[in-house]
Write a structure and sequence with these properties.
By secondary structure, the chain is an alpha+beta fold. The chain has three helices and six strands. It is globular and about 45 Å long. The mean pLDDT is about 90.
Amino acid sequence: MESANSPVRRFTPKGADLDSVIDVRAVFQQRHRELKVEELPPMLLPRKGRFGLIDYEKAFCPDLKNGPDIFVLRGVDRAKGAMVVVRPDQYVANVLPLDAHDKLAAFFGEFLLDRH
């Protein structure tokens, strides 16, 4: 988010909620009781709307006790992780390594308009 090339910075209009164009979510490996909400990056705790309320619905943990392991189910390497771009119609549009920031920016640059 700090980079000028960040898709969120490039394509979100000034004054709009941080997630109004690109809605970032994260699935962490640890159990939900082990995840410290206060340590999450601001991208996953955006302040939204007229009153600047914090959206706590951006970070998720797998339910290893009652369901299948999403990392195993989707073939995501636990050591490397992945970025998954999902369209509003739930189509998986792209899967990238976590460090592929330039590729992610180029992907969104193909069809979104810069805010400037």
